[in-house]
Structure prediction request, 316 residues.
Amino acid sequence: MTVTPSCISAISLVVPCYNEETTLPFFYQEVSTVLGTINGGKTGEIIFIDDGSTDATLAVLKNLAAEDSRVHYISFSRNFGKEAALLAGLQAAHGQIVVTLDADLQDPPSLIPQMLEAVASGEFDCAGTRRVSRKGEPPIRSFFARRFYKIMAKLSDIEVVDGARDFRLMNRKYVDAIVSLPERTRFSKGIFPWIGFKTKWFEYENTQRIAGNTKWSFWKLLLYSFDGIIAFSSKPLAVASIMGILLFLIALVVICFIVIRRLVWGDPVDGWASTACIILFCSGIQLFTTGILGQYLAKTYTEVKQRPHFVIREAK
Ligand code: UDP
Ligand code: MG
Prediction:
């Protein structure tokens, strides 16, 4: 399919890269082929964001930029995370159409023409993608990922689509809306549905990354999911309050029981075991709920400091 220039004035690809020296040559090859089918490959830019890589990613990007004028790069002063890299790319993108995709070819660039067709028609503002399988992923990771989507659906008002990827093709209005959100704790999977607009979904089977290793450990993903819940739901705070009220009511009943027992049967000196259990139980709940409060406080502190989302070391 060839999309005519009247449909789109320019397309920008935004690609976050963290230690991707081995994948970039494959990625560039495939993306160039796909861009060649859009407006004859004449318009467009590929913005790579080097997210503080410690391998030769930046050197590879510099070579690509020297050979191809469509290639640009932004290099961070350290690793700021994929969310910051995506934001930097979206802020820098000039295109009327912007595509975000990973550098490891797990997001198939061959889908771009179809996605472009959906958005260029004017019917949709965004073309989103979701994996319909989690083939090749560790089972424990898939299990927790599914639980996360279920919990998120219960806790927040926005709909985080199960398996949705950050591989998106968006029009200018959509990009401007994303960039206008100033928050420091960015959780794209929540930001996309929060801004609204019309999204057409494309589905594909999960594929293995072309080379290199995933940058997401289990713990990193777990913390990221907490970020998501805290950024898009205040229900955990309500849970803390409800637990407090329930415990108070239970305490009232227990106090009545103890007072009546004292009046009727006197004051036998036993019950240290039950006392110890009650103290342990209550202090556990207190720590748990203080922890929830602490999470919100910490996020508020991060927002209040108003630090920039990233620091750029060099760019072209
Ligand atoms: N990435 C990044 N900063 C990070 C971690 C990852 O820019 O701190 C990039 C990475 O280079 C890749 C994309 O984000 O282009 C997705 O990362 P990865 O493939 O490791 O994640 P997975 O596909 O396993 O979820
Ligand atoms: Mg990947």
Residues 1-7 have pLDDT under 50 and may be disordered. The CA atoms of residues 174 and 237 lie 31 Å apart.
